[in-house]
């Protein structure tokens, strides 16, 4: 390291010491900006990760169901006008067009042959009313193969009471959501009456209680053995309403959906279509987080710029003397640039430490989310890359804020300054 470089570093340190209060304010400005950046981005990614895990873990990458589609009334009107006919509808009752999946055995063989499929779970779904005495709650029953459902959705991890391997559950038991059990004031071992879509009343023992952490699932969802539900509803042996598919790469659903459509004339719904609201919310939160976080760093940068600018004005005489002693414009620029770098590095260190402390404190604050979300504390993500990014952005902001004042200092005319002494 040359003598001139050492001299610029020494002068930068002396400038900082001579204006301690201004330097401390600038350093704290950078530190607070970085800490808020770290806290906000870790908190928002924590919220996003929680929502993604809760929603996407309980959502198929691709769901296939009956390909029958009811004709839209505009299509009926247009056809009638062309044929100069009128359609008279006498039955006001809406008839379901979902007759179940066709060629279920062929579809399952096809899915078993695919290497890109991680797992799949056949379902029978039907509406039901859950009853205990005078208490009634409407919801849905999912008839599943528990082994396949567990492999697809890690259902055993969702169990908070009971056992998914219970032989009673595998045959004639029922598994209900946490919120549903609370509404009906029932526990594992109690009996639950259900009225299925065909009007049949069945009494089943509760063998397990689950929680996905999302209210609309835990409030109104129940699981039964698929064969027993078929028997209860009087359905044929191979009847299925839908099949949920998990892929090795959940972004590769497009080709599989098209192939299933061509081969078996089934409709499909991807995880993107099923979670449009959640995905849109994540995008909005991410955008707001980055905008607000960078705004904080920008404000800190303006603080450094103002302090460095004042320093150039106050040190004009010193700059003139240094130039008269042989310091060139490059050395003067480096002196003031080093000053802003020191402030940026010190601010980054303070910001990272303060950000970590705040994240730790927030992560243990109790949170009562009610029945909508299963959260005990605020969700906080501790990702090292955000701490690194915060430090880098803080230092870069400080350097950029110091460039203009440093260049201004290098252009000081020593003759005009010394004449004014």
The radius of gyration is 33 Å
Give the low-confidence spans: 69-83, 91-97
Structural class: alpha+beta
Helix and strand sequence: HHEHHEEHEHEHEEHEHEHEHHHHHH
Strand order of the largest sheet: 2-3-8-5-7-6
Cα(first) to Cα(last) distance is 35 Å
Integer average pLDDT: 80
Query: Considering DSSP H and I runs of 4 or more, what fraction of the residues is helical?
Result: 55-70%
How many discrete domains? 2
Biggest sheet features: 6 strands, mixed, barrel
Counting DSSP E segments of at least 2 residues, the number of strands comes to: 10
Overall morphology: elongated
Amount of beta strand: 15-25%
Overall description:
The chain has 421 residues and is of the alpha+beta class. The chain folds into two domains: 3-56 and 278-419, no CATH class; 62-70 and 98-271, no CATH class. It is 57% helix and 16% strand. The protein is built from 16 helices and ten strands. The chain has a six-stranded mixed β-barrel. Helix 14 runs antiparallel to helix 15 (384-410). The longest helix has 39 residues, at 276-314.
